[in-house]
């Protein structure tokens, strides 16, 4: 009986621990590691009115930030 408890209880305990760990991570981070970087650069770009220099400093393509900023730039024009 005790051997069955260990045999089945340990995987369940590990699964619960993994679920708790990933739930905490999901609340504090995004799915992709660069999503928060792109968002931060995009917001700074809209605020400053030109591309954030962190994009070129980190070797990141500016196309996603530029495309994301088009609606904001058009809204500020009219």
Describe this structure in words.
The protein is mostly helical. Helices cover 78% and strands 0% of the residues. It contains four helices and no strands. It has helices at 2-28, 35-48, 53-57, 63-77. Helix 2 packs parallel to helix 4 (63-77). The radius of gyration is 22 Å and the shape is rod-shaped. 8% of the residues are buried. The mean pLDDT is 80.
Strands, helices and their partners?
Elements: H1 2-28, H2 35-48, H3 53-57, H4 63-77
Helix pairs in contact: 2-4
Note the main attributes of this structure.
single chain; 78 residues; mainly alpha; 2 domains; 78% helix; rod-shaped
Question: How would you sum up this structure in a few lines?
Answer:
This protein is mostly helical and about 80 residues long. The protein has two domains: about 1-30; about 30-78, no CATH class. The protein has helices spanning about 1-30, 35-50, 55, 65-75.
Shape: rod-shaped
Give the topology string: H per helix, E per strand: HHHH
Mean pLDDT: 80
Total domain units: 2
Please estimate the helix content: over 70%
Q: Structural class given helices, strands, pairing?
A: mainly alpha
Largest sheet: none
């Amino acid at each position: 009986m005790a051997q069955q408890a260990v045999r089945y209880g340990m995987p369940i305990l590990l699964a619960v621990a993994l679920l708790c760990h990933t739930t905490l991570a999901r609340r504090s981070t995004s799915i992709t590691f660069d999503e928060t970087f792109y968002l931060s650069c995009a917001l700074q770009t809209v605020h400053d009115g030109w591309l954030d220099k962190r994009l070129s400093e980190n070797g990141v393509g500016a196309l996603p930030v530029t495309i994301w900023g088009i609606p904001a730039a058009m809204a500020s024009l009219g």
